[in-house]
Amino acid sequence: MMLRFKLNGEWIECEAEHNETLLDLLREKLGVKSVKRGCNVGECGACTVLLDGRPVNSCLLLAPLVEGRSVETLEGLRDKPIMRELIEAFVEDGAIQCGFCTPGMLISAYSLLSRNPKPSEGEVRRAIAGNLCRCTGYVNIVKAILDAAERLRGED
Amino acid sequence: MEAEEILEELAERGEFIVIGRGVRRFDALDKALGRAKFTADYVERDALVVKVVRSSLPHALIKGINIDEALKIPGVVAVLTAGDIPGENQIGYALPDQPFLNDVKVHYVGDPIALVCAENEEAAFKGVEAVEIDYEELQAVYTIDEALSEDAPRIHGGEDNIAVTTRVRKGDIEEGFSKAEAIVEDTYETPYQEHMYIEPEAAYAIPEGHDKVTVIGTMQSPFLVREKVAGILGWNLNQVRVIQALTGGAFGGKDDMGPLVCAKAALAAVKLGRPAALILDRDESAAYSVKRYPARIRYRSGADAEGRMTAAEVDITVDCGAYANRAPFWLWRMTAHAAGPYEVEAVHVDGRAVYTNKVFGGSFRGFGDVAMHFAVESQMDMLAEKLGLDPLEFRLRNVLRPGSRTTTNQLLDHSVGIEECLRGVAEASDWWNRRGEVKRIEGKLRGLGVACAHHGISTSRGAPDWSAASLILNEDGTFTYRTGICELGQGSQFGHAKIVAEILGAPLESIRVEGPDTDSTPNARPTHGSRGLMLGGSAAADAALRLRGRMVKVASEMLGCDEGDVELKDGRAYDRRRPENSVSFRELAREMYIRGVSPAAYGFYAPPRRYFDPETGLGVAYPVYTFAATVAEVEVNPETGEVKVVEVWPSMDVGRAIDPLLIEGQIHGAIAQGLGFALTENLIVEEGRVLNPNFKDYVIPSSMDMPRVSDVIIVEKPYRHSAFGAKGVGEPAIISIVSAIANAVYHATGIRFRTLPITAERLYRALRGEKP
Amino acid sequence: MRPLPRFRVHRPESLEKALELLATLEKAKPIAGGTDLIPLMREVEVDVKHLIDLSHIGELNFIREEEGYIRIGATTTLSDLVASELIASKAPALWEAAASMGSPQIRNRGTIGGNLCNASPAADLGPPLLALEAEAEIRSLDERRWIPIGEVFAGPKVNSLAEDELLTEVRFKTPPQGAGSAFEKIGRRRAVTLALVNAAAYIEVEDETCRVARLALGAVADRPLRMGEAEERLMGKELSEELIEEVSALCGRLVRPIDDVRASAWYRREMSRVLSRRALLKAWRRCAT
Ligand SMILES: Cc1cc2nc3c(=O)[nH]c(=O)nc-3n(C[C@H](O)[C@H](O)[C@H](O)COP(=O)(O)OP(=O)(O)OC[C@H]3O[C@@H](n4cnc5c(N)ncnc54)[C@H](O)[C@@H]3O)c2cc1C
Ligand code: FES
Ligand code: FES
């Protein structure tokens, strides 16, 4: 089927299978590789993208369902001010080890800071609860998100 | 100047340029931008999809394999079985007990039998379902006791199911126990632990002409992968090129899985002349990949009235699962660490590893030391209690100090910082004031526990170990550094770059690290055993020192000064006496090229030779040990049995902190994994089948489960024979956290768990009087 | 892990059209958030040829208060529930349940209709909706009926709907001033965890006397259960901690849990008691405020 949706701010048209997930479509056909597959069943968060601005698991989303909607990935978000600050903080604070969870983690963090510029530590933890990380113990990830928020508020 | 002297001089500067500071990692940015490439990101769309046909029975003879139906499925290109292997059908790591594709017998549920190669996932899946295996089922062996029983079926033939044995005989054990005022004895069991790296195992193989193959994959030992792939293909090593893609978490598991997945993809690619990819599904990875070996430890130990350890008698059984894999090394590690980081006069250890018809074990952060210290640290707490001593005080009386001798009677003359670690966490956690009474907060019980760890770096038993690296000064004054040590998230390569930068006075940005590619990087041996930085980094230092010598020589001639007066700093060579007299590395490089002075250096490092006697188990088991101590505070909800870890105080003697941020990262990650192992991670294996191969039911910690982690207390007791004195840091923290949590649970509840994990249900039952 | 079956996806924009597709297409199944259905299709063989996507049907997505009822459209997501002031203030049990579910990503896709129709015994919205005595509107092309929420559940992962039917709405009477409700859950970690046991309580107190008490438990039988016998012991009585304790102990005996990889039946019984008490106490405390 032909599919039309907004990918990272631009309307695109592409061929998709009915039984294809957005994760497969992005990775295999559209070359969007920042979106990772860790489990394929919604449990790890590595495949997180924004659908109409909200984080969702792209492995659980059938490609046909994004018709007419907006999908954003790290490729499209990395130049936005909030994401730039997050990326900077992740690098500075040692929030990245193997990096496999990082894109999904950043999307969840981005979504949080877009809605809530002054999150508490608990809110940060809750916002990334659907993104598993096996390397960092989350400590420096939480710190990085709080640091980014602080810098975005200009309190640095 | 001699290399050692230069290093010593550098080390004694006290102030470093990049060593010891948390500097931003250069690999982090690409990862944060989503540009970093993992194995699956390399796979082209037209690559063949490889899927593994696996045994559905734990123990059976294979009577027939029928692939006809599978081949009829549209999209299935081929089904490869043992007969298609051009080389040797054998991929065992320590022992030749593991066929690559089984055609005679299967040994566990999941044992590979055939490879379906297809145009797409769907065809591959259907192909796997369509392959018919005719089995003759055999009696299966599931437990250690079954494996050791007289009439147990022999899984790998032979006289019994014992894969390997170990022993240590140090001192007079009878005398030791006769001096003891308190003796405790118990049996401890630790279960499987699944790595659950977020990136599942993957390999992508591309045939190059008719007699070469390139394999890109997740791994920890590219040269081991090369050896195994070449063995399966029956090729020479130089016909196989192995490239380590960025690896999404490894923790030991990908050391074992790397060769297994890479060889499968390579066989398909070579046989069919097309690029082929094997990417494990999560459930496959969780059910059939290697796991932390389960172990059972009987432990008897005693201490005298002064609170000094007098004897320890330890009996270890490791459950290998279907194949030995790393079991000999695992078992030796447990054996050599059996007394813990304590000085014990008399130590007797007997160990064995036995086969069962279950998924086989393999490397996992901390190796057998996690299980061993769980036993040791539980015993220490129990002895302290019996003697009426505070458990931390009791440990302080017994910890290894410079001049002490270890389990294997190895003399430790320097680099022993466990006492400082222990004192550090005692102070940070306010132990002496807070350990006293158990606090009750809103019906919940708070407890404080402590545990120590030691972990030998590099190979066990004095087996030779070495590492290599190469360094090139380019014409523009930049450097290309090549190492076979893998980036797995731990940042070891970055540590190497810092060492090179420090020695050469080169800006960190001017050093580019090229990761493992067996065609161009020197063999650094595996990235395991916490050796990546100590061994790999020391090879880096050796290369840098060699190059430095030549750079200094040419610079002295250019500057017209003595070699001794040349100082390398900020990418320039200075005449120390006339600092305005200097040349840039670019100018220096050009000059070296023109003069024909080699701008490339090959670095090599081997720790001092060691003597170890496997008969008595005595000798120098490891070149050096990293030490750790951890205090944990837990809160137990007696109403549900739930344990919440409230805060953790970690410390580690790292030799020299090359990068505090990297060390902190390793410790945080280890705490999370240890917390999971201690409390929630519970792989359920029934009749050889893993029932919960997913994140839903194999519960690893989420962001909500992590405790507050106090600042890491870094103790620096440099090791004399490594670059800047660094020791490995990847593993020790998981060893101490597990026992610290278990001991804290005991403190809070008075219940001692001898098996893990301490799930809410188990604790709840124990609180109601059931035997834990 | 299985590849997804070869189905066609249909995206009707009206309920009418969706019902028509369901009635006419063979082997058709609705899909809302897909957070239950997709993992299911990865795990076992599902015989389906057509998926009818409900997410485009505007008329199924609402939360409103009308004529004494709180009404929730079937495709309302868990995040929508969490974001709703109305739900937070009038039905905290439902709010707490939704907030406890999955991850932010799952809550952004998972729907109330999907949670109920998936009919998992552990479905977190089961107990609060039972305690609120909610009803579900079930529609097919030519029929429209209201059934008590409990009747949606027909067995573990089996709902009572016919193949051409949709759950379109959930409603319950707006709790009066002075009513209280609460939800409790125990899992195996602090986020993204299925319930080992979950519980919800609803209480109305008047002049110190308990007028209405409802209690429901999940993951303790083949479907979420009301604890009728326990409720009766509370109604008409003056509430006290002792009474609640006693009634909760009874709940531990009323449930019919099973052993599985997550917990034993025995532990589930014990937790039924603990969570019943917690939920009742919390609901009771909320009555005053
Ligand atoms: C990682 C993860 C965590 C989760 N955590 C929780 C949790 O904590 N608690 C919990 O209760 N659940 C949890 N779930 C399960 C799931 O997310 C919820 O049950 C969710 O509400 C399902 O809604 P959905 O819209 O995604 O359902 P779908 O998957 O779209 O549908 C589920 C079933 O209901 C049918 N259906 C859907 N809508 C209708 C309708 N209107 N009429 C008729 N039939 C319909 C479908 O055909 C399908 O059979 C979790 C799932 C995942 C993957
Ligand atoms: S891959 Fe989608 S959540 Fe794991
Ligand atoms: S950094 Fe490796 S999984 Fe998060």
Using the coordinates shown, work out and report the CATH topology of the largest domain in chain C. Answer: Uridine Diphospho-n-acetylenolpyruvylglucosamine Reductase, domain 3
Assess the beta-strand content of chain A as a share of residues. Answer: 5-15%
Specify the CATH class of the largest domain in chain C.
Alpha Beta
First and last CA, distance of chain C: 50 Å
Number of helical segments of chain C?
A: 11
User: What count of structural domains of chain A?
Assistant: 2
What CATH calls the topology of the largest domain in chain A is DNA polymerase, domain 1
If strands are numbered along the chain, what order do they take across the biggest sheet of chain C?
A: 4-5-10-6-7
What class, by secondary structure content of chain A?
alpha+beta
Q: Tally of extended strands of chain C?
A: 14
What is the tally of beta strands of chain A?
5
Estimated structural class of chain C: alpha+beta
**Mean pLDDT of chain A, rounded to whole units?**
97
CATH architecture of the largest domain in chain C: 2-Layer Sandwich
Task: Write down the Rg of chain C.
Answer: 19 Å
Contiguous runs where pLDDT drops below 50 for at least 5 residues of chain C:
none
Q: What topology, given as strand order, has the largest sheet of chain A?
A: 2-1-5-3-4
Strand content of chain C: 25-35%
Notes on the protein architecture:
The complex is a heterotrimer of chains A (156), B (772) and C (289). Chain A has 156 residues and is an alpha+beta fold. Chain A has 6 helices and 5 strands; from the N terminus they run E-E-H-E-E-E-H-H-H-H-H. Chain A has helices at 22-29, 74-77, 81-92, 102-115, 121-127, 139-152, and strands spanning 2-7, 10-15, 48-51, 54-57, 70-72. Chain A has a 5-stranded mixed β-sheet with strand order 2-1-5-3-4. In chain A, helix 3 (81-92) crosses helix 4. The radius of gyration of chain A is 15 Å and the shape is globular. The termini of chain A are far apart. By secondary structure, chain B is of the alpha+beta class. Chain B folds into 3 domains: 2-36 and 466-605, Aldehyde Oxidoreductase, domain 4 (2-Layer Sandwich); 39-138 and 201-279, Aldehyde Oxidoreductase, domain 3 (Alpha-Beta Complex), CATH 3.90.1170.50; 291-461 and 613-767, 2-Layer Sandwich (Aldehyde Oxidoreductase, domain 4), CATH 3.30.365. In chain B, the strands form 9 sheets. Chain B has a 7-stranded mixed β-sheet, with helices on both faces. In chain B, strands 18, 19, 29, 30, 33 and 34 form a 6-stranded mixed β-sheet that branches. Chain B has a 5-stranded mixed β-sheet with strand order 7-16-15-14-8. In chain B, helix 8 (222-233) runs parallel beside helix 9 (253-272), helix 16 (492-504) packs parallel to helix 17 (534-559) and helix 19 (660-679) packs across helix 20. The relative contact order of chain B is 0.13. Chain C is an alpha+beta fold. Chain C is globular and about 55 Å long. In chain C, 56% of the residues are buried. Classes of the chains: A alpha+beta (156), B alpha+beta (772), C alpha+beta (289). At the A-B interface, helix 1, helix 3, helix 4, helix 5 and helix 6 of A face helix 2 and helix 19 of B.
